[in-house]
C-alpha cells in the first residue's frame, strides 16, 4: 500500500538509560495493532538475548507502524528505538539524520539526567522537532510538576506541551501518537528526482547476505533496480525491498520519506558504510548526503582464549561478531604468557563488557582480557609522533620527549547531598577544571575534565555507589593533554610478563603494581626456591612481594651427635636452593593471569 509523504512521520525515541524507551516502543506497537496479543512479548525491538538479560538497548531497531488518527486518516509512523548508554551513542547519531522528530523521554521519578541533555543536543543539531514525554507517571515517587520545571529550566522546552504517559500501563500512549501526528513535520523530497537514500543501518544475515536499512530522501527504489553506494561505486541488483514491521514485510517500492530495507546480494558488511548515500547506478544523484562521523574506538584490550586450543574458534567467533558490530576493530596479537589472541578496540567499558559476554555465551569460549587501555600520543625526541594503544609497543623512555593522553568533558548530575562524595571521586580520578551549578532545587550539575583512562576504570560504578544510584554521567571526548605516563612491568623471578604490562599515570603506578604482585602471590604455587614478584618502571622497582620456598626438614634424621653435621646439611640445602633459583624457571599458571587481569572492585 502506497502512502503519501504528507501522511508519513519519521521519529525516534531518545532518553537517558532506563527511562523506558523500549517499554514505550512496546506500547506504541500494541496501540497500532502491529502484533496480536498472542505474538506480543516485552522488548519487541530488543532482539538480542543480552539486551533482554541486561534490560538495555544496544542496537537501534526500526518498525513501521500503521496508525489511524482521530481525524480518521491513515498514517505511517516509522519509529526507531535507540540506546541510552553513552557507549552506544554512535547508534543514536546514525538514526537522527533519518528522522524529522524525536520523542524525548523523561522519567517522572528521576527527572532530567545527563544523557537526556546530551541526546537532546544531538537532536537539535539535526533540526529535529523535539516532543517532551514524561514517562512513569504511575510511580508512587513520580514528581510530575518537578519534572516539568526541569524540562523548562534545563532543556528550555515548553513543559505545557509535554505528554504525560505510563509506558508500563499504556496510559497516555494514544496522546503520544496524536502529538506525533500534530507536531512532527512530514518528510520533504522529490519522488521523480534521482534516487538519494541515506544508509543508517546494516545487519548481516547468513542466508541472504547484508540487509541494508535506509531512508529515501529523493526518488524511489524497487526490486530489479541496480543501485550503488557512493563510497565504493560497486553496482548491486536489488532483489527485495520492504518495510520493518517486526518481521521483514516486502513491498513494491519505497519512495520519498519512507524507511525500509533491501536485499541486494551483498556478501560482506564491510561493503556497506553507515552514513553512505545510495543511488541508482544508471541515473545517479549528483550530490551525496552528509554522512556520519566515523566511529573511533576509544578503549583497547587484548582478548585471548582461556584454553590455547580454542584460538581457531575465537578467530571464527570474532569475525562473525564483527559482521554485526561495525564499531569493533581487531587485529591478531600474541603474548608469551597467554599465547595467540586479538587486539581489539571498543567504544567504552560497557561495549567491551558486552562484546566479551556475547563472544563467551554465543560460542561457548572462556576468554581472558588484558587491562583496558586508551590510545596515548607519544612525541619522540626526533619530533616523530606515534599513537600507542598497546604497552608492548611503548617506545624506550630515553627517546620520549613527552606523552599525551585523551581527556573527556564529563557532565555529572547528582543530588545536592552527594556533592562531597562526587567531588572526592573526581579528584581521585585526576579531575581538572571542575565547575558546579544548581539545575533544580536539590540537584547539581558538575562539569569536569577527566582522563579517559580513569573514566573507563570503575569511575561510573563508583559514581553510582557514592550517589546511591541517583548520579548520572555523560561525557564527550575533548583533546589530548600532556601527562606523566609510565609503563609498569610485572617481573616474576626477573622475567617480564608482557600480558600484565600497563600504561598508567605515575601517581597510580605503585598501587597497580602492588595489586598485581599480591594477586600473583596468591595464585602462583610455591617452588623449592624463593620467587621474587616485582613491579618496575624501567630499571626502578616500585613494588615487591616474595613467594617463600617450600621447606624440607633435612635434619629430621639427625637425632643427636655433633651439631656441625646439621650445619653441613643446612648449608648444602642452602647452596642447592641458590643454584636452583639461578637456573629454575617459574611456570605461571593461567589462573594467575586471570586473577591479575580481573580488576579490583573499587
Structure description:
There is one protein chain. The protein is α+β, with helices and mostly antiparallel strands. The chain folds into five domains: about 5-185, 3-Layer(aba) Sandwich (Rossmann fold); about 195-280, Elongation Factor Tu (Ef-tu), domain 3, CATH 2.40.30.10; about 300-370, Alpha-Beta Plaits; about 375-485, Alpha-Beta Plaits (2-Layer Sandwich); about 485-595, Alpha-Beta Plaits (2-Layer Sandwich). The protein contains 14 helices and 31 strands. The strands form six sheets. The protein has an eight-stranded antiparallel sheet with strand order 11-10-16-7-8-15-12-13, with no helix packed on it. β7 (about 195-205) and β8 form a beta hairpin. Residues about 45-50, about 55-60 and about 580-585 have low confidence and may be disordered.
Q: CATH fold name of the largest domain, please?
A: Rossmann fold
How many strands, which pairing sense, and closed or not: the largest β-sheet? 8 strands, antiparallel
Tally of DSSP helical segments:
14
Given this structure, which CATH class of the largest domain is correct? Alpha Beta
| Radius of gyration based on Cα positions | 29 Å
Runs in which pLDDT lies below 50 for 5 or more consecutive residues are 46-52, 54-58, 580-584
Q: What's the total number of strands?
A: 31
- Beta content: 25-35%
- What structural category arises from helix and sheet content? alpha+beta
Question: What is the topology, as strand order, of the major beta sheet?
Answer: 11-10-16-7-8-15-12-13
CATH superfamily placement of the largest domain: P-loop containing nucleotide triphosphate hydrolases
Amino acid at each position: 500500500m502506497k502512502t503519501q509523504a504528507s501522511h508519513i512521520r519519521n521519529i525516534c525515541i531518545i532518553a537517558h538509560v532506563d527511562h523506558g524507551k523500549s517499554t514505550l516502543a512496546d506500547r506504541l506497537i500494541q496501540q497500532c495493532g502491529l502484533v496480536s496479543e498472542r505474538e506480543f512479548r516485552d522488548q519487541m525491538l530488543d532482539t538480542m538475548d543480552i539486551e533482554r538479560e541486561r534490560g538495555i538497548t544496544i542496537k537501534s531497531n526500526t518498525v513501521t507502524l500503521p496508525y489511524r488518527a482521530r481525524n480518521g486518516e491513515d498514517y505511517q509512523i516509522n519509529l526507531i528505538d535507540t540506546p541510552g548508554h553513552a557507549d552506544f551513542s554512535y547508534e543514536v547519531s546514525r538514526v537522527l539524520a533519518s528522522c524529522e522528530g524525536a520523542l524525548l523521554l523523561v522519567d517522572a521519578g528521576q527527572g532530567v539526567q545527563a544523557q537526556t541533555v546530551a541526546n537532546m543536543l544531538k537532536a537539535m543539531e539535526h533540526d529535529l522537532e523535539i516532543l517532551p514525554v514524561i514517562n512513569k507517571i504511575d510511580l508512587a515517587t513520580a514528581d510530575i510538576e518537578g519534572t516539568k520545571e526541569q524540562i523548562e529550566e534545563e532543556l528550555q522546552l515548553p513543559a505545557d506541551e509535554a505528554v504525560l504517559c505510563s509506558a508500563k500501563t499504556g496510559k497516555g500512549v494514544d496522546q503520544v501518537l496524536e502529538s506525533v501526528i500534530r507536531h512532527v513535520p512530514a518528510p520533504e523530497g522529490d519522488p521523480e528526482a534521482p534516487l538519494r537514500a541515506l544508509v543508517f543501518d546494516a545487519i548481516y544475515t547468513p542466508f541472504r547476505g547484508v540487509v541494508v536499512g535506509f531512508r529515501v530522501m529523493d526518488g524511489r527504489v524497487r526490486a530489479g533496480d541496480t543501485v550503488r553506494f557512493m563510497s565504493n561505486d560497486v553496482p548491486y541488483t536489488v532483489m527485495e525491498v520492504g518495510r520493518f514491521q517486526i518481521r521483514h514485510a516486502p513491498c513494491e517500492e519505497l519512495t520519498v520519506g519512507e524507511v525500509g530495507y533491501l536485499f541486494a546480494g551483498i556478501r560482506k558488511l564491510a561493503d556497506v558504510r553507515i552514513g553512505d548515500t545510495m543511488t541508482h547506478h544508471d541515473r545517479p544523484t549528483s550530490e551525496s548526503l552528509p554522512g556520519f562521523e566515523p566511529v573511533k574506538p576509544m578503549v583497547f584490550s587484548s582478548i585471548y582464549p582461556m584454553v590455547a586450543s580454542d584460538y581457531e574458534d575465537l578467530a571464527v567467533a570474532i569475525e562473525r561478531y564483527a559482521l554485526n558490530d561495525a564499531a569493533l576493530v581487531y587485529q591478531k596479537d600474541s603474548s608469551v604468557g597467554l599465547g595467540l589472541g586479538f587486539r581489539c578496540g571498543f567504544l567504552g567499558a560497557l561495549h567491551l563488557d558486552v562484546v566479551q559476554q556475547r563472544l563467551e555465551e554465543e560460542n561457548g569460549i572462556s576468554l581472558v582480557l588484558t587491562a583496558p587501555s586508551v590510545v596515548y600520543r607519544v612525541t619522540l625526541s626526533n619530533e616523530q609522533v606515534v599513537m600507542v594503544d598497546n604497552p608492548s609497543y611503548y617506545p624506550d623512555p630515553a627517546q620520549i620527549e613527552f606523552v599525551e593522553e585523551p581527556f573527556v568533558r564529563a557532565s555529572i548530575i547528582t543530588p545536592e547531598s552527594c556533592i562531597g562524595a562526587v567531588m572526592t571521586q573526581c579528584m581521585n580520578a585526576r579531575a581538572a577544571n571542575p565547575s558546579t551549578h544548581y539545575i533544580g532545587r536539590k540537584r547539581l550539575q558538575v562539569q569536569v575534565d577527566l582522563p579517559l583512562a580513569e573514566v573507563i576504570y570503575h569511575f561510573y560504578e563508583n559514581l553510582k555507589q557514592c550517589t546511591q544510584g541517583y548520579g548520572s554521567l555523560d561525557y564527550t571526548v575533548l583533546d589530548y593533554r600532556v601527562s606523566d605516563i609510565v609503563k609498569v612491568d610485572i617481573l616474576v623471578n626477573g622475567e617480564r610478563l608482557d600480558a600484565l604490562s600497563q600504561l598508567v599515570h605515575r601517581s597510580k603506578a605503585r598501587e597497580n603494581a602492588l595489586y598485581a604482585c599480591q594477586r600473583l602471590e596468591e595464585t602462583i604455587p610455591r617452588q623449592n626456591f624463593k620467587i621474587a614478584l616485582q613491579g618496575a618502571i624501567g630499571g626502578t622497582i616500585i613494588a615487591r612481594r616474595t613467594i617463600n620456598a617450600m621447606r624440607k626438614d633435612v635434619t629430621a634424621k639427625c637425632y643427636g651427635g655433633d651439631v656441625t653435621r646439621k650445619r653441613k646439611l643446612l648449608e648444602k640445602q642452602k647452596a642447592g636452593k641458590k643454584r636452583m633459583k639461578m637456573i629454575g624457571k617459574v611456570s605461571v599458571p593461567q589462573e594467575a593471569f586471570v586473577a591479575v587481569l580481573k580488576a579490583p572492585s573499587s
